[in-house]
Write a structure and sequence with these properties.
Largest sheet: 8 strands, parallel
Order of helices and strands: HEHHEHEHEHEEEEEHEHEEEEEEE
Structural class: alpha/beta
Distance between the termini: 41 Å
Strand content: 25-35%
Strand order of the largest sheet: 5-4-3-2-1-10-9-6
Mean pLDDT: 95
Helix content: 10-25%
Length: 418
């Protein structure tokens, strides 16, 4: 394992673990996942938009940050930009005086949750897109407006869809971020500090490597972007609560079991989870979606209750986990000491009676659901030069919990754009 180390900002981001995505725009009103920039701005007219309710729903579900599609690939801007007429300023909502980004930024600040913004590099409405130099100026102006007008941002999301083979002036683009939002994580493009997991199912796979030399561009191609050297880039797993990213009246949320399985295979694998909650044409998260989220959070809390912390006796190549008394549990959580980088490449956990569970990487949080077992100590063998655990704990509050699964054959259904 390479000795590339994380920054303090990257470690803080990893500790956030779970965020909410908000896909909202003209597509919401047109029943589209992709649109080509020709849907009239006048169609954007949410009847009861309440950004504060989005934040409340996100926080109730346990999210610590929220990311909004300020501009999707269609080019429609959810703030009154000076770059184009294709924005909320040309819509009837709030009499053309509205600003979704402002309302959400205010709500996030009031409720104490981090705000991130998605600004698509691909723009199907901008006439200047065919002129790379002119479009770079256009895009940089949009990014500057967002980076200077709405307070601190914790993440800037640069989606690679539609941009394979296109060269943007990432040096100038990232300079804007570094000047105005130096603490923001940069998602996947330009000079990334975090990366896309590589699918839209919300799933990481073992091992979850934080040090990579390339990032996946889009699920619609096999292309990837090569980095100049190896970088510490922890992954973010994005997935929608519903089948689509934008709200559709005939769509339904995933089941509680599906969401639990996603959690185990994202946060429980040491990756961050970004769960999309699409508002409907009212500008609200549908009641049925909120109910599923509540059921999921309640079951997750139940499963991760009855926590007993372990005292670590670390040694070269492993650690012994000691508990105050014999404890009965069915969940084990391990956390790696990442201060000197990710080093653990494999781990094996056993009781005094024998093998319990094993896996590859540990990272920021590795969660194992195991058969119900009683033990006062556990033995963890670690592979990887200098790998050490920072903490460990077990949970015994839901010994009846079954192992959740992903529905057979499930794949994110979004088709590639025309």
């Amino acid at each position: 394992m390479t000795q590339v180390t994380p920054t303090a900002a990257q470690l803080r981001w990893q500790q956030l673990e779970f965020g909410v995505f908000i896909h909202f725009g003209v597509n919401t009103f047109a029943g589209k996942e992709w649109s080509d920039g020709t849907i009239p701005a006048s169609t954007f007219d949410p009847a009861d938009l309440d950004a504060g309710s989005w934040v409340r729903v996100a926080k109730e579900a346990g999210a610590r940050y929220l990311i909004l599609t300020a501009k999707h690939h269609d080019g429609f801007c959810l703030w009154p930009t000076g770059t184009t007429d294709y924005s909320v300023a040309a819509s009837p909502w709030r009499g053309g005086k509205g600003d979704v980004v402002r309302e959400l930024a205010d709500a996030c600040r009031e409720q104490g949750i981090g705000l991130g913004l998605y600004l698509s590099p691909w723009d199907r409405n901008a006439e200047c897109y065919s002129d790379p130099v002119a479009y770079d100026d256009f895009y940089i102006q949009q990014l500057t407006e967002l980076c200077t007008g709405y307070g601190p941002l914790m993440e800037l999301w640069f989606d690679g869809a539609g941009s394979v083979g296109r060269e943007y002036d990432w040096g100038r683009i990232i300079a804007v971020v570094k000047e105005h939002q130096p603490d923001a994580m940069i998602f996947n493009m330009g000079q990334p500090t975090i990366r896309w997991v590589g699918n839209e199912n919300g799933l990481a796979s073992d091992p979850v490597n934080y040090v990579v030399d390339r990032t996946s561009d889009t699920q619609y191609t096999d292309s990837s972007s090569e980095l100049s050297s190896q970088h510490y880039l922890p992954p973010e797993c994005d997935v929608s609560l519903r089948r689509g990213w934008f709200w559709h009246p005939d769509d339904e949320p995933k089941t509680t079991e599906h969401l639990l399985a996603i959690y185990y295979q994202s946060v429980g694998m040491g990756a961050n989870l970004l769960l999309n909650l699409p508002p409907d044409t009212r500008g609200r998260i549908p009641d049925g979606d909120v109910q599923v989220l509540r059921e999921w959070k309640a079951e997750l809390d139940r499963r991760l209750s009855g926590c007993v912390e372990a005292t670590l006796e670390s040694y070269d190549g492993g650690a012994t986990l000691n508990f105050p008394a014999a404890v009965t549990f069915n969940h084990l959580e391990l956390v790696e000491d990442l201060g000197l980088g990710q080093r653990i490449t494999h781990h094996v956990v056993s009781t005094d009676e024998g093998h319990l569970v094993e896996g590859m990487t540990v990272g920021s949080r590795r969660l194992h659901q195991v058969p119900v077992v009683t033990a006062q100590s556990l033995h963890v063998k670690l592979s990887g030069d200098g790998g050490r655990l920072a903490s460990a704990r077990v949970y015994g509050g839901a010994l009846d919990a079954g192992v959740p699964g992903i529905p057979d054959g499930y794949e994110a259904p979004t088709d590639a754009p025309d």
